[in-house]
Amino acid sequence: MVKEITVDSFNTEVINSDKLTVVDFYATWCGPCRKLSPILEEVETELSDRVNFAKIDTDDNIDAAKEYQVSGLPTLLVFKNGEVVERMVGLMPKSSIITNIEKHI
Fold first, then answer.
1. Which of 78, 79, 55 is nearest to 5 (CA)?
2. Which residues form the catalytic set?
């Protein structure tokens, strides 16, 4: 299951992580976000040995959304060594998500 994080745990879980980390910026009211959730769970199952996964509710953690210029939901940001290396906006198929993540591993 993709780990829920907050702005308070963001640095520990994402920025300071030794592994590539994918963060799902979502909102509970967002239909495409709800559709992406089970897809992301499948991606996590396939890549969890090489990649960390986290999700953050933009309504409860607006500062994180602002800092990373998240304007559309869902947004997946891929972090490597504390820096954003990939941005995926909107509902995407599982194969596209995996391809966009794997090129940074």
1. 55
2. 30, 33
